[in-house]
Write a structure and sequence with these properties.
Radius of gyration: 73 Å
Largest sheet: none
Number of strands: 0
Structural class: mainly alpha
Shape: rod-shaped
Oligomer: single chain
Order of helices and strands: HH
C-alpha cells in the first residue's frame, strides 16, 4: 500500500527542483548565470587578492622585523666583537708591560748579582792580599825572632833574653896541635891543562 502523503511530498520536491533547474538553464541560456558566476568568481578572486595583499603586507612587515632584528643583532654582535678585540688588545698590552717589567727586574737582578759577585771577588782578593801581607809580615817577624849569632853576624852578647846563646865554636879541645895532622895528604893548586883554557885575559900594570 502506497503512502500518498509521501509520494505527494516527493513529487512537490521534484517539481521545485525541476523549476530551479529550468531557471538555471534559462539563466545559462540568457547569460545571466554566467555573469553571476563571473561576479561570484570576481568576488572570490578579489577576496584572494585582498588576502594575498594582506599576506604580502604581513610578509613585508615580518621581513622588515627580521631585517631590523638582524641589524640590531649585527650591531650588538659587532659592538661585542669590538669590545672583545679592545679587551684582547688591552690584555696583550698588559702582558707586554708585564713581560717588560719581568725583563727589567731580571736584568736588575742580574746586574745586582754581578755587582755583588764583583764586590765579593774584590773583597776576597783584598782579603787574600791582606792574608799574604800578614803571612809575609809573620814570616818576617819569625825571621827576626829567629835571628841569632848562628845565622847572622849578631854578636852572641846581643842574643835576646830568654833565648839560649849559641857559641860559634863549641867544639871541645882535643889536645891536637893546630894545622894539618900527621898522615893527612897534602893538597895544592895545580896548573890547568891548555885544553881547559877557554879565555885569556891580559892585565896591564902601570
Amino acid at each position: 500500500m502506497f503512502n500518498i502523503d509521501a509520494l505527494f511530498e516527493q513529487c512537490m520536491a521534484l517539481r521545485c527542483e525541476v523549476k530551479s533547474l529550468r531557471h538555471t538553464v534559462k539563466e545559462f541560456k540568457s547569460g545571466e548565470r554566467y555573469l553571476k558566476l563571473q561576479a561570484d568568481q570576481h568576488r572570490v578572486i578579489e577576496g584572494y587578492v585582498k588576502d594575498i595583499r594582506k599576506l604580502r603586507l604581513e610578509l613585508a612587515y615580518a621581513h622588515a622585523r627580521i631585517v631590523s632584528t638582524r641589524n640590531t643583532w649585527a650591531d650588538d654582535y659587532y659592538a661585542l666583537y669590538d669590545e672583545y678585540q679592545a679587551e684582547i688588545r688591552k690584555r696583550n698590552e698588559k702582558i707586554r708591560n708585564l713581560e717588560d717589567e719581568v725583563w727589567k727586574a731580571k736584568k736588575e737582578g742580574d746586574d745586582k748579582l754581578s755587582a755583588k759577585e764583583r764586590e765579593y771577588e774584590d773583597r776576597l782578593y783584598e782579603k787574600d792580599c791582606i792574608i799574604d801581607k800578614l803571612k809575609n809580615e809573620l814570616a818576617h817577624a819569625n825571621a827576626l825572632l829567629g835571628r841569632d849569632s848562628t845565622n847572622t853576624n849578631i854578636p852572641t852578647s846581643q842574643t835576646p833574653a830568654g833565648k839560649e846563646k849559641r857559641r860559634p865554636n863549641s867544639r871541645e879541645k882535643s889536645g891536637k896541635p893546630k894545622g894539618g895532622q900527621p898522615g893527612h895528604e897534602k893538597h895544592s893548586l895545580k896548573e890547568p891543562d891548555e885544553s881547559e883554557i877557554t879565555d885569556t885575559v891580559w892585565w896591564l900594570c902601570l
